Amino acid sequence: MGVYIARFRNLPNAPPYKKFLRGYGYEGESSTDFSWDAPGFGIAYKKALRVPRTKISITGFGEVLPRWDNFVELDPTAKDVYGIPVLKIHMSDGENERAMIQDMGDSAGEMLEAARAKNIRTYAHPSAPRWALHEAGIARMGSDPKKSVLNQFQQTHDIQNLFVMDASGFPSNPCQNPTLTIMALCVRSCDYLMSEFKRNTF
């Protein structure tokens, strides 16, 4: 069984949450298996083995706020097999992310207790970079060429005919899956690009 728990912190038209900005959601799954660590031998063991062990886990996915401390640069020494410098990623959790991660663990425990789960274990330790994430950012959108790479149509500020139509333009990574936003931005950018072609801009 799979579950999705939508964001419930800092919702529109609701009082702001005092501990952190933005919010997070949960994805979860459950499984049932034999009791492989059952004690005993013979018939008693066979009966104990068949007592089902049901597990449920929920994992929080939260937004990382844009911070100048998180950035990507070309590695000055490391190169790939073609001799091209590889990316060097700088990423760390800020105070907002640490507070959000703690709330993820606390809230997950509360929900499992309310569902009458037993043997509850929560994990809420910052671990940037994550084991599960959506790759986004690097070429953020913005109106100031000194602080951003792309304009609102995902067109680079310094190269007129270069468009970056993926998640690179995101200034932050939300708690939701980014695919529909990527598609919507791409459609808008393509409409703009077609109108510019009609005007013989390129």
Verbal overview:
The protein has 202 residues and is α+β, with helices and mostly antiparallel strands. It has two domains: 103 residues, no CATH class; 69 residues, no CATH class. Helix content is 24%, strand content 19%. The chain has a three-stranded antiparallel β-sheet. Strands 4-5 form a two-stranded antiparallel sheet. Strand 4 and strand 5 form a beta hairpin. The model has no long low-confidence stretch (mean pLDDT 90).
Mean pLDDT reading: 90
Binned strand content: 15-25%
> What Rg is obtained from the alpha carbons, in whole angstroms?
23 Å
Largest sheet: 3 strands, antiparallel
- The spatial strand order of the largest sheet comes to 1-2-3
Shape: elongated
Q: How many H/I helices?
A: 3
Number of strands: 5
What low-confidence regions span 5 or more consecutive residues with pLDDT below 50? none
SS class: alpha+beta
The percent range for helix content is 10-25%
CA-CA gap between termini: 52 Å
Quaternary structure state of the chains depicted: single chain
Order of helices and strands: EEHEEEHH
State the domain count.
Answer: 2
